[in-house]
Amino acid sequence: MSIIAIAAAVKAAAETAKALQDIYGVLDTDRGVAVTVYNHTPYELHSWGAGFDHGGWADPADQVIPPESASVFSVRDKGFLTGVEGHIFYVVDGVDAPLERVFVKWNNPFVGSNSGAAVASQYGPMDFFGRPSDRFRADGRYGSGNVSQNDYEIRLR
Question: How many percent of the chain have pLDDT more than 70?
Answer without folding.
Answer: 81
